[in-house]
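Homework help thread (please don't just give me the answer)

Our assignment gives two proteins as sequence + structure token strings and asks us to describe the second one. The first is just a warm-up. Here they are:
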Amino acid sequence: MEHTEGNKDHKYVKDGPWSELYVLTEHWKSDLEFYKDDLRFLHHLIDKYFMWITKPENLDMVKELKVGLFDLKNKCQDLLEKVQRHRTQLGQMVEDYKKADASIIIREHEHLEEEVAHFVTLFRSNRKEAFAITEFIIDSESLANLMDH
């Protein structure tokens, strides 16, 4: 039975949707670039009000948040590079199918898909936390009047 499935997988891979996978990775790249810009905005938001924070517990929260955002920025950059390499491989498969490379590329695609999904989950959680912390600090430090200037 495994042999039959392997043949089916090979046919799928050879006739596989290389161009569709290529387009999907273009969407990933676009999304990751958006997240990268959004992370830059969050850094700017935090840096803008960081100097006005006086309470040590708020400083600690912000420092921890900044570390998380920095880690996310690095993960995003790493994923962008991986997606770009993968897109190049898929483009080569569209132009010249190579049986030896096909199963590796499919595995890489599946792994990248999981990595991107995990990153998006982390990003959303971190972004939500950043806004909650920022709102808390603005209220607790009485920084709302600074936002009007």
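The one we have to describe:
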Amino acid sequence: MNIEKLSKRLETVCTYIPSGSRIADIGSDHAYLPCYAVKNGIASFAIAGEVVEGPYQSALQQVKNSGLGDAVSVRKGDGLEVIQKGEVDCITIAGMGGALISSILNKGMEKLSENERLVLQPNIAANFIREWCIEQGWQIIAEEIIEEDQKIYEILVLEKLKDKKPYFLTEAELLMGPILIKENNSVFQAKWHQELQQWKRILKSLEQAAETAETTEKKKQLQKNITMVEEVIS
């Protein structure tokens, strides 16, 4: 992967960046995504944010080598610390867990002008992001699920609710994604069949374990999830 050719998951993230946007890529690593977005005319300006020294230096070098220093700003800082309020139109966060992405958004709430689009690609636990939407008054306007190198990724696209109507998701939608459930494509089916198999293995081992309040509650939750997912994918 380089600024000429991104991975499938990062290319998919880029398809949801509005044309001509000023973007901030948080946890940018080598700054491949912001450099690619600017180089290909997707973004007019980009910030590559990185909190770890090694990746920060890699991003600086990448931007320098690409000759994109006028349009890509590499900044060191934790999460949304690297942006000013209203400075960007679109924020991308890719390759982290859903819980961490939600934490970054919560910590940086004062940096959101509420006019931004958020394009988020959690590696696991996308449900944390959907729960964050409900809590903070954002809505999911698009979702996509893809497979790359035998791994499955979800991309969620969020915008701030413009009216005061409550945004509600069912338990199944929080877990599996409201738009992904409707599409119910082959990658979605594969993901949840894999999850079902894993949950059933765990449930079987718990049924052979000593009965405690903790195991009883865990079995109850697993069975609930199994029933819910089977209803969706059947």
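TA reply:
I won't write it for you, but here's a hint about the kind of observation we're looking for: The domain at 8-170 is CATH 3.40.50.150 (Rossmann fold).
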